[in-house]
Design brief:
The protein is α/β, with parallel strands linked by helices. It contains 13 helices and 8 strands. It has 2 domains: 58 residues, no CATH class; 246 residues, TIM Barrel. The protein binds flavin-adenine dinucleotide.
Length: 305
């Protein structure tokens, strides 16, 4: 119930204005967001690399309905990718892109075109792009765009969400040679018709989807902080005779950092998703909805403003 309310607030511009002016919420932002500038993002990637961790950088922003904003987002990715190349970080660091930030809600073809330009820049920088997944109304359109991008850039990654009832089947059909699929639980408020609502059902779907990805020919990217699912991922990789470099784990910046280092020290590929930029509101609200303990801190920060 509380999760639903917070996720609904994540899309409210009125609440965004209210939260954005609360000073204490800034310190909460710093836990989950690496900074506001390209230099902050590059510094975070460099620091993670020195700890033996991979990174995927996300320039925050979503649900853009202004074409100029979508162009500005594309330009920031181009800028970021040339900085990664110049800093020699392309081997350890890729980028994650939300199609709604490059105009998916304005014009799908323009979003595809901007995403294409980002993929081309990533290819020339020697790295890859993963296209984030947003709510279920754009699942088909997003998968279609990833499939088109993969015709030109074979390594464009997709994201599938275990809470969607369709995901096990999507894993089976997308886990083809050369594919890179990030599997997460899913972070949006979705109706019962399309998504499992009980956490246990989401976890079971996640395990079935791990099996489908590990059995397939692609490169699974298991994005979860859930200790049981990490253990199941390790077990399934062994069962399917996967070499340690044929799959990876992913976690979010600021969440379970000690576990990130532990997995890397044990020889697993561990990638950290690093958001940066000043459009942090929607991202932060989804993180709050994931954990009741965070909600208490967050509510206090608004109350004491
Ligand atoms: P949970 O059951 O939520 O959490 C397991 C444990 O992890 C918790 O008990 C707690 O100890 C810790 N934990 C989890 N969340 C938090 C938090 N916010 N603060 C502190 N501790 C926490 N979702 C999408 O819908 N689309 C995407 O494209 C997408 N990309 C992602 C990329 C990466 C690399 C990751 C890690 C997640 C991504 N997500 C995405 C979010 C994902 O769907 C989940 O909402 C999120 O990861 C929480 O699920 P969980 O698997 O960690 O399990």
């Amino acid at each position: 119930m509380l999760r639903s309310v917070i996720l609904a607030a994540a899309r409210s511009s009125k609440f965004e204005r209210f939260v954005g002016t609360a000073p204490v919420s800034r310190s909460l932002v710093r836990r989950y967001v690496a900074g506001e500038t390209t230099a902050d993002a590059v510094a975070a990637a460099r620091s993670l690399a020195s700890d033996g961790l991979l990174a995927t950088l996300d320039y925050l922003g979503e649900d853009t309905i202004v074409a100029e904003q979508a162009d500005a987002t594309r330009d920031e990715y181009l800028n970021l990718l040339s900085a990664l190349k110049a800093e020699g970080l392309s081997e350890t660091t890729e980028v994650s892109v939300k199609l709604s930030a490059v105009g998916q809600r304005i014009d799908v073809e323009l979003a595809y075109d901007r995403a294409r330009q980002i993929c081309a820049a990533a290819e020339s920088a020697g790295t890859t792009v993963t296209i984030d997944m947003e709510d279920h109304t754009v699942t088909d359109s997003t998968i279609e765009i990833v499939n088109r991008l993969r015709q030109d850039f074979g390594d464009t990654g997709a994201v599938l969400q275990a809470y969607l009832r369709r995901t096990e089947d999507d894993c089976k059909s997308l886990a083809t040679a050369g594919s890179r699929i990030r599997l997460c639980k899913g972070a949006y408020k979705e109706p019962e018709t399309v998504a499992y609502q009980r956490p246990l059902d989401v976890d079971r779907s996640y395990v079935r989807s791990i099996n489908a990805l590990m059995a397939g020919d692609g490169y699974p990217m298991l994005a979860t902080h859930d200790p049981r699912l990490v253990e199941i991922g390790i077990d399934r990789a062994r069962w399917f005779d996967r070499e340690p470099d044929s799959f990876e784990f992913q976690m979010l910046y600021g969440i379970r950092p000690a576990e990130q280092l532990r997995l890397a020290a044990e020889g697993y590929r561990m990638r950290v998703y690093v958001p940066y930029g000043d459009q942090w509101y929607g991202y932060l609200m989804r993180r709050m909805a994931e954990r009741p303990a965070n909600l208490a801190v967050f509510a206090r920060s608004l109350w004491t403003r």
